[in-house]
């Protein structure tokens, strides 16, 4: 369709405009060896890099006064070199009796991003942004409506997780002290369009301390609208994160409207790439499907989705479908599906042997859809 023609030029990686200032260089942007080299370049003792890394990733300290193993005379200089301030909280909203915390951040250049901490009885999850805004232009998404401002740096992505980790460790979230167990790249932005910084963040989160946070790769989920070449590249990284494919429609005609990148990579190509990821990593792929009333929630589309998933492989349980009750955006023509229609969608898929769940929705009273807080600012 003619209105989608410009979408075909969407780049796989969003390049930064020339002349744009870069975020401050932070130890989370660097390997431990690179951190050491940077301190030496500043005329500081290289071995202090390991101490700073331990404070950041292991002790979860953000107050230089608590870094007592650093000499008082050099402490400020060391912190300035490797632990510069990356983001400032503008608004913090809580829901679910304080176990859901959404934060709107202002980055060093004024760009706005959002992160969400969600504590459950058995886990604590951080949902993080990878870009300020998004260039994928999905019409039902609050972030997409604002367009792309810029890519985030590796450290800006990681810092969102560390802020949540500090809060959990200090017992600031109801339920007592705990650690971040899961990170989902489902906040603002298309993670695979910021591939280099994304993979830097994944490596920092999964590397053992003091190199990184020491999380299990199985606790990290990377979401994508379907940048097929990047999905295949991710499969070759050797890091078994969970892949979540935001499909939202099983047919090209509808998906072209809902997810414009589909005019470049069809439903069949995208699902084939997801199956290839599952085969390479032996990790089950999650199919994300936002349920929109009268748009994509018809029972026959559940049957078609099952056909599409079985077309690439049915030998093992390579896929799980995650239905998402739409977080509605004021003034949007897209609204949440009726519960009965979602239940029938589940029934149809499970009848075909496809594991399906309806996502537990949290924080609707605090503008849960990513991009809503930023839009109000």
Automatic annotation (TrEMBL):
Cofactor comment: Binds 1 [4Fe-4S] cluster. The cluster is coordinated with 3 cysteines and an exchangeable S-adenosyl-L-methionine.
Chain spans, region Disordered: 1-23
Miscellaneous comment text of the record = Reaction proceeds by a ping-pong mechanism involving intermediate methylation of a conserved cysteine residue.
> Which family does the entry's similarity section mention?
Belongs to the radical SAM superfamily. RlmN family.
Question: Pfam families annotated for this entry?
Answer: Radical_SAM
Record protein name field: Probable dual-specificity RNA methyltransferase RlmN
Please name the GO terms that the record assigns under molecular function.
4 iron, 4 sulfur cluster binding; metal ion binding; rRNA (adenine(2503)-C2-)-methyltransferase activity; rRNA binding; tRNA (adenine(37)-C2)-methyltransferase activity; tRNA binding
* PROSITE patterns listed in its UniProt record: RADICAL_SAM (PS51918)
Tell me the active site. Answer: 114 (proton acceptor), 370 (s-methylcysteine intermediate)
The reply on keyword Metal-binding is: yes
Q: Which domain of life is it from?
A: Bacteria
A cellular component term, taken from the record's GO annotations: cytoplasm
Keyword Methyltransferase assigned to the entry: answer is yes
What function is annotated for this protein? Specifically methylates position 2 of adenine 2503 in 23S rRNA and position 2 of adenine 37 in tRNAs.
């Amino acid at each position: 369709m003619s209105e989608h023609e410009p979408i075909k030029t969407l780049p796989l990686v969003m390049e930064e405009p020339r002349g744009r200032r870069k975020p401050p260089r932070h130890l989370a942007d660097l390997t431990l060896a690179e951190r050491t080299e940077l301190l030496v370049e500043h005329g500081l003792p290289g071995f202090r890099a390991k101490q700073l890394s331990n404070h950041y990733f292991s002790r979860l300290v953000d107050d230089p006064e608590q870094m007592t193993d650093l000499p008082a005379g050099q402490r400020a200089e060391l912190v300035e070199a490797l632990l510069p301030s990356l983001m400032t909280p503008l608004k913090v909203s809580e829901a679910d009796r304080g176990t859901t915390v959404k934060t709107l951040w202002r980055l060093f250049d004024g760009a706005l991003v959002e992160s969400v901490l969600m504590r459950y009885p058995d886990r604590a999850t951080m949902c993080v942004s990878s870009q300020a805004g998004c260039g994928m232009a999905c019409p039902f998404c609050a972030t997409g409506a604002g367009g792309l401002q810029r890519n985030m740096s590796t450290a800006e992505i990681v810092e969102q997780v560390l802020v949540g980790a500090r809060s959990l460790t200090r017992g600031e979230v109801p339920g007592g002290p705990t650690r971040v167990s899961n990170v989902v790249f489902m906040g603002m932005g298309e993670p695979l369009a910021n591939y280099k910084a994304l993979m830097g963040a994944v490596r920092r989160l999964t590397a053992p301390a003091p190199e990184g946070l020491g999380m299990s790769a199985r606790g990290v989920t990377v979401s994508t609208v379907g940048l097929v070449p990047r999905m295949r590249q991710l499969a070759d990284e050797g890091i078994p994160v969970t892949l979540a494919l935001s499909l939202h429609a099983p047919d090209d005609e509808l998906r072209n409207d809902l997810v414009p990148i589909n005019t470049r990579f069809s439903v069949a190509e995208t699902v084939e790439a997801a199956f290839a990821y599952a085969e390479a990593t032996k990790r089950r792929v999650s199919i994300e499907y936002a349920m929109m009333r009268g748009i994509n929630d018809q029972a026959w589309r559940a049957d078609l989705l099952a056909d599409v998933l079985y077309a690439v492989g049915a030998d093992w349980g390579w896929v799980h479908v995650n239905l998402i009750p739409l977080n509605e955006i004021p003034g949007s023509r897209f609204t949440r599906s009726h519960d009965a229609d979602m239940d029938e969608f589940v029934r149809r898929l499970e009848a075909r042997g496809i594991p399906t769940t309806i996502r537990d929705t949290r924080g609707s009273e605090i503008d849960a859809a990513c991009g809503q807080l930023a839009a109000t600012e």
